[in-house]
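Technical note accompanying the year-one report. For the benefit of new consortium partners, we illustrate the data format agreed upon in the data management plan: each record pairs a sequence with a structure-token string. No post-processing was applied to the example shown here.
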Amino acid sequence: MRHFLEFERPIAELEGKIEELRHLSAENGLNIAEEVGRLAGQADRLLRQTYAKLTPWQKVLVARHPERPHCRDYIAGLVGDFTPLAGDRTFAEDQAVLGGLARFRGRSVVVLGTEKGADTEARVKHNFGMARPEGYRKAKRLMRLAEHFQLPLLTFVDTAGAYPGIDAEARGQSEAIARAIETCLDIRVPVVATVIGEGGSGGAIALAAGNAVVMLEHAIYSVISPEGCASILWRSADNAQDAAEALRLTAQEMLRLGIVDQVVAEPLGGAHRSPQEAIARLGEAIEETLRPLVRLDGDTLRRQRRQKFLAMGSIVAQ
């Protein structure tokens, strides 16, 4: 059964009526195709109208939709011969960060991403996509592996942020994130980063400091979650909608501000309605983005990437 968000309730009611009519037609042999078609057209128009004017907070809800494709889905749909690599060679394996060797459309690559999990059991296993220090140290290790074997790096970001627990802080969370960002900016191979859901804080940018940053249409990218921002500024998470507006966290704002390089359109109603189509569209965007990058030498790639991020402050300040 499809999960509907609160603002999708009118759409849910229409689609519910359509399903009832189809069920009635199947049971009684009634010819109600005309009525079903009329309601389907009405539902389609309502869906288009709703998603054409989503508020920033509604974008947050869509980016967090439980049926939205996750990192594991993009890896399964876009690359072949995936060989997962585990552990940071220091402390432990972190299931919130997935990574390994793979082939993307005939080209050997290293893939990295944050995985939230699709159900309760998987979410607990992957810690809701919130990595601990060992996750970022694993990411750093695989980035260096990509550089060593001269393989492009593809990353898939979907995290509310790094895990804020005491144990993570005790093991050097901030240092691990900083080292991952440093390494991402330093390696001499093409890096294409994609924000597929939530891009939260340093936990996201640790895997997203790429030569090109691609963002899905209804993904979000922000220094802090709206709830966290509201708790600091208003002393209450009840103001999360106001925070979402102020943070300018939508893909469209990120493109306007020069933070990301491309926004990939999602299927009508969001990636959760047509996951395979969303995955295919992102795959095309990655291939187009990667093609010119693989022609550049390592020093040029590194210089371009560092200049891109150093220039962001001046862009935002204008």
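Partners are asked to follow this layout when depositing records. Residues 9-28 form the longest helix (20 residues).
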